[in-house]
Amino acid sequence: MNLVLRDSRPVSATWWQAALAGLAVLAGITMIKLALPPIGRPTPFLMYFVAILVAAWKGGLPVGFIMTAVSATAGYTWFIAGAPNLTWSSAAMQVVVFVVEGFTITWLATRARELRAQAISAMRETRDAVDQLEGVLNALDVGVTMQDAKGGLVYANASTARIVGVPNPTDVGVTPVTHMTEHFEVLDADGHPFPPEQLPNRVLLAGREPQDVLVQFRMPGTFAIRFSQVAARAIRSADGTLRFVVNTFRDVTEARQQQEAIRVSREWFSTTLRSIGDAVIATDADGTVTFINPVGEELTGWSAAEAEGRPLVEVFPILHETDREEGVSPVDKVIEDGIVAGKANHTILMRRDGSEIAVDDRAAPIRASDGTLAGVVLVFRDVTAERRATIRRELLTRATETLSSSLDYRTTLATVARLAVPQI
């Protein structure tokens, strides 16, 4: 539905072309008046205004004034001079009146010509602006329509025609509504039938404030579903009266598919991490917990609901086994250095209930597509039993060495006791 303006560019004439046109008209009128004496002398200046009008329209004020003077001279020479019973003052009065009227017609014709040129220029600018706007709207992937205050369709862009299923935007306005409704089935975001009266344009035309809605539509005979964000905005006059409604239909199918793919991917990874035997904690780039699996909940004593959103140091406080000093979290190492933090030895995890377990842990960075740090994943496991078994083996080895190195029974027992007491 395009606005078409006729290209009526003004044809400019040189002064001599305008003068020749005026003289040609003047000569023709003079010949007619000479051939018809009843309209010659009684009306000496009759029809000469046509020659003045032609000259002024084509050549402007100077040519119009010149043609007025030439017409006055011709009228006086051919039809006033020598006329019986005509005084000089009466003849002069007729000439003066004609000249005044000729100058007035010249000014009016010139002014009309200027106004016409301005109007044509404004129409041309309007046409160019409309063409530019039309090109922009047709290049959009967004369907755009405009309705008047009564709901009549006054504009539709190419994307709308493609959605409706007609070849040209101009065909949208004459396409029956039944054809449009038969062309696709409109559903809400959850796949239920969508009431047409809840469409934003219907709400706006009913005098209420509309909200953008997400709908899905399905082409007949296919299983393909498309999602569209539908909006309506009002164009009002200065007093607030509704003049037009602008509707937009933005296809968000790809965005919805990407969101669904991300959701499925997250669900897949979440399910996987919840199923593995090691404890897993994920944090953002600032070290705030964003995920903890069931094994992590069991080892730390924090539930996922309580742990998520807390700093890792609260959920995963660690100590050095030998000196009981606070340990550096492997996640902090990853955030600081940006590389994988290897397994730490002799690490004690302080659980939420105050009990302690020995753990080994490893942390690795999670990077965004541009390489920036998006988060950290920490994997750890309970090695308390393994650590105790190692201690027992070390104790037995050293005790055996001690027993073999001394024949003094009492001294040997005292040494073995000193080795065992710190481990008890």
What's the short version?
The protein has helices at residues 15-35, 48-59, 61-80, 88-139, 158-164, 177-183, 200-205, 253-275, 294-300, 304-307, 312-315, 330-337, 384-405, 409-420; strands spanning 143-148, 153-156, 185-188, 213-218, 225-236, 242-251, 279-284, 289-292, 318-320, 347-350, 356-367, 373-382. It is an alpha+beta fold and 424 residues long. Helix 1 (15-35) packs parallel to helix 3 and helix 3 runs antiparallel to helix 4 (88-139).
Identify the overall geometry: rod-shaped
Distance between the termini: 91 Å
* Rg on CA atoms, Å: 48 Å
- The assigned structural class equals alpha+beta
Integer average pLDDT: 82
What share of the residues does DSSP label as strand, in percent? Answer: 15-25%
Low-confidence stretches: 1-12
The helix content is 40-55%
Report the order of strands and helices: HHHHEEHHEHEEEHEEHHHEHEEEHH
**β-strand number:** 12
Main sheet record: 6 strands, antiparallel
Query: How many helices does DSSP assign?
Result: 14
Strand order of the largest sheet: 2-1-6-5-4-3
